[in-house]
C-alpha cells in the first residue's frame, strides 16, 4: 500500500490527527461521566421488550482523569459495514492506537468483507506496519466492506463462537443506521447469552442521515460533499464561461437530501430540489417539472440559456404520485414478476398498468421509456427500488424539454447535460475534519470497548468549537430506535434523520434561492485543503455551522 502512494499521499500519511482534550493522555486516563437513563425516540415499550438487557442505559461523556485505570490487554475485532465513506481507515487507526495505549499486548482483528467476515471467522491481524500504511487514506480497502445482515439466531451463534474463539473483549461495527441496528441486536444477543464480549458501533454514512443531538454528523459526509462541491464549482465555471448549457446534477443520498442541501450551501446553484420539501408540499411530478421549467424560462427571458440544478438521488420516492407508483409497482412485481420478465418495456407497462391504480398507471405512461424500464428493475435486498439506477436527472431534462416546447411564449434555448456524482466522493482522502473526527470516534470506541459498554455508539460532539473542546462519549444505540415496517414485519431500526424544513440549513437555502435562481451567485469551493490556516483547512460543513447557530457567508 505505502509503495503506491502519490507524493500527496506520502505527505498526508504523516498527518497526526488531533484528539479532544479528554483523550490526549491515552485511553487509560479517562473518566466516565454517566448521565440519566435513556429511552428510544418512540415505541418505547416495544423497543424495551426487544432489548431487555441493553435498553435504558445512560449517555456517557468522557473526561480527562488524573489517575489511570488498571491496565490489561484488550482484544478488539473491527467490521466495516455498508457503503464506503471517507475516514474509515482513521476510525480503525483510532481504535488501534487507543487499545495500544492501554497495553502494547492489546490485539486488533479486522474481519474481512464486512459482517460476513465476522460470521465466518475470516480476519487479519492489524499490526503497526499494516495500520501505518492506511492512515489518513480514503476507502475501506484495509479489510474491505460488505452488506451482509446479521439477523438470524444461527448467524448470531456463529458470531459468538468466533468472538469466544478469538477471546475478543469487544467488536466494533462501523456503519450506518442498518449496520448499527445490527450492532445493537448482536450486542443484546451476546449479553443474553452471558458472553464477556460487547458490541459497539461507529456512525458512518456520507448520506448524513445518521444524526441526532449526540451524533452531530456521520463521518464521511464532510469529505464527500466537499468533493462533490469542488466538481459542481468546476461545472459552474464552465457553465458561466460557455453560457449555453444547463447542467442537471444528481447527488448521492438514497433517502435524505442532506448532500444536495449542503452542496447547494457551498456552491449556490440556480435550482436545488429538496425531496423533503417536495413531499411536505405534496408536489406532483408535473408540479416539480413546472417549477424547474419556470426558472429555466425566466433565465432565458434574461438571455441566460444556461444554469446548474442539483437533484437528490431519492427525489422520485418523495414525489407523492411517483412514490405511490413505485410502491404499487414493487407490490405488483413481487406477485407477477415471472409474467412480465420476458416482455419488452412497452409490453411490461401495459401489463403492469392492470395491477396498479388508475392514477399510477397514468403517471407510469407519462414517463420516458428509459425511466419506465429503470423503475421496473429488480428490487434491492430490502424490497426497495434501486434509486441509484434511476436516471432522475435525465427524466427531469426530458420532461422539462417537453414542457418548454408546449409553451408558446418560450423563445429561449434549452440544451442540457446530465451528471451523477456518487462514487467519486465515497473513497476520497478524508478532509482534516474527517481525519480528526474519525480518529476521535475510533479512539473513543477503544474506551467503550475497554469498559465493556455494550450496545453503545461512539459519539463526538460540539464539533464547531475546535477539536480541543470536542466532547467524546457514548450513547446507547437503542435511544435512536423506532419500529418500522420491513418485509411485512415490524422491525427495530435506527430512525433516519431527514432534512428538517424548519431548521437553519434549509431556511438559509429558502431565503437565498430566488436570488441564486436569477443570478450567477456561484461559489467555487476548489479542492479540499489539507494544509494552511485552520479556517481554511479545518472548516466544518455549512450544515453543522448553521445548526449550531454560527453565521455563514
Automatic annotation (TrEMBL):
Pfam families recorded: PFK
Keywords: Cytoplasm, Glycolysis, Kinase, Magnesium, Metal-binding, Transferase
Active-site residues, Swiss-Prot/TrEMBL: 207
Binding site for diphosphate: 83
Protein name: Pyrophosphate--fructose 6-phosphate 1-phosphotransferase
HAMAP family hit by this protein: Phosphofructokinase_II_Long
Residue span(s) of domain Phosphofructokinase: 75-348
Signal peptide range: none
GO MF terms held by the record: 6-phosphofructokinase activity; ATP binding; diphosphate-fructose-6-phosphate 1-phosphotransferase activity; metal ion binding
Organism: Hallerella succinigenes
Associated pathway: Carbohydrate degradation; glycolysis; D-glyceraldehyde 3-phosphate and glycerone phosphate from D-glucose: step 3/4
Role of this protein: Catalyzes the phosphorylation of D-fructose 6-phosphate, the first committing step of glycolysis. Uses inorganic phosphate (PPi) as phosphoryl donor instead of ATP like common ATP-dependent phosphofructokinases (ATP-PFKs), which renders the reaction reversible, and can thus function both in glycolysis and gluconeogenesis. Consistently, PPi-PFK can replace the enzymes of both the forward (ATP-PFK) and reverse (fructose-bisphosphatase (FBPase)) reactions.
Marked site: Important for catalytic activity and substrate specificity: 178
